[in-house]
Design a protein that fits this description.
The chain is built from 14 helices and 10 strands. By secondary structure, the chain is of the alpha/beta class. The longest helix is centred in the middle third of the chain and has 20 residues. It binds adenosine-5'-triphosphate and magnesium ion (MG).
Length: about 300
């Protein structure tokens, strides 16, 4: 079983959107999964199972040692068990142990679950981290084997991204190199996006890029369909390029598809209508880096 955190302390970068579409892609590929909604806004679990009060959410597991199965919902359309978030996650007691979320996730893995008279042993756990809540993100990183970081490509996002990368580095140091950093997911990238083209080299020279998710009205429109099986683009528009990119992202994160740094650059370059070489011009790197920091060129 793999535990994947989707983390980015900057809000609104696409964590929940990506988590839900990865769950759909996982289900399509025949896997069983768990969504741990670690966000006090609880957007992901609300899309999947509706509103959950604190006593029926992850908060009760972390505060009162309630067993995760007592608050979990099975969503057959996604072949997924959902541990819902709730607003009570925003003010957990200060002495909540750093490994509380890890214990919760592993208690799901260690027991063969019996849900509706069916054994349910998950292959994948996705933790949807909150924006702006460093303490909860740290707990998620303590639980995860692997972390992927959705990022929008603007100068402000680039600056904010450092907080998450530093947090991951700090946890990796304490945990002896875990979770592994799968890479940045360039999200909301538009065709020919010149801002993303200018910023790509600052990110890609340090951190691998995962498959790029395009800016897409199809993605933005989903979430509230009456039919739960149509609430994410992978299911509502399975042939769209956005759906294909989510499937590719799932394949890479699940280890089914080989993916190199060059693949990441090429994938972003395709969306930007340019070449991988253009995104990483070594000779200009230092000069452009300085310009972004406000140094006169
Ligand atoms: N690729 C995309 N194309 C178009 N819209 C997108 C895309 N990805 C995300 N969005 C939209 O951006 C907004 C933020 O996305 P989302 O809620 O997934 O981000 P988040 O990182 O989970 O936010 P938070 O930090 O608040 O949890 C939503 O309105 C979503 O529909
Ligand atoms: Mg979210």
């Amino acid at each position: 079983m793999k535990i994947l955190a989707i983390a980015q302390s900057k809000g609104g970068t696409g964590k929940t959107t990506i988590a839900l579409n990865l769950l759909a892609a996982s289900s399509e590929a025949g896997h069983r999964s768990v969504l741990v909604d670690a966000d006090h806004h609880a957007a992901g679990s609300t899309v999947m199972v509706g509103f959950s009060p604190p006593e029926r959410s992850l908060s009760a597991v972390l505060r009162h040692n309630v067993h995760p199965l007592e608050v979990a919902h099975l969503v057959p359309e996604f072949n997924c068990l959902v541990l819902p978030g709730s607003y009570a996650l925003s003010d957990l007691p200060q002495d909540t142990p750093l490994n509380a979320l890890s214990d919760c996730v592993h208690s799901i893995a260690s027991e063969p679950l019996d849900i509706s008279d069916q054994a349910f042993s998950p292959d994948l756990v996705i933790i949807d981290c909150p924006g702006g809540d460093v303490a909860m993100t740290r707990m998620a990183l303590y639980a995860a084997d692997c972390v992927a970081v959705p990022m929008n490509f603007s100068a402000l996002d680039l600056t904010a991204n450092e907080t998450t990368i530093n947090l991951i580095a700090a946890v990796r140091e304490l945990r002896g190199g875990r979770p592994s950093l799968a890479g940045i997911i360039p999200n909301r990238i538009q065709r020919g996006d010149s801002v993303a083209r200018d910023l790509a080299f600052l990110v890609a020279s340090r951190i691998p890029l995962l498959p790029t998710i395009p800016e897409s009205n199809l993605i933005r429109r989903t979430g509230s369909a009456v039919d739960i099986g149509r609430r994410v683009v992978v299911m509502s528009h399975p042939k769209s390029s956005a759906a294909q990119q989510f499937r590719q992202l799932f394949g890479v994160l699940n280890g089914d598809r080989p993916w190199s740094r060059e693949d990441g650059l090429r994938n972003l370059a395709e969306q930007l209508r340019t070449t991988a070489e253009e995104l990483l011009p070594e000779s200009e790197e230092a000069e452009r880096g300085m310009a972004l920091q406000g140094t006169p060129a």
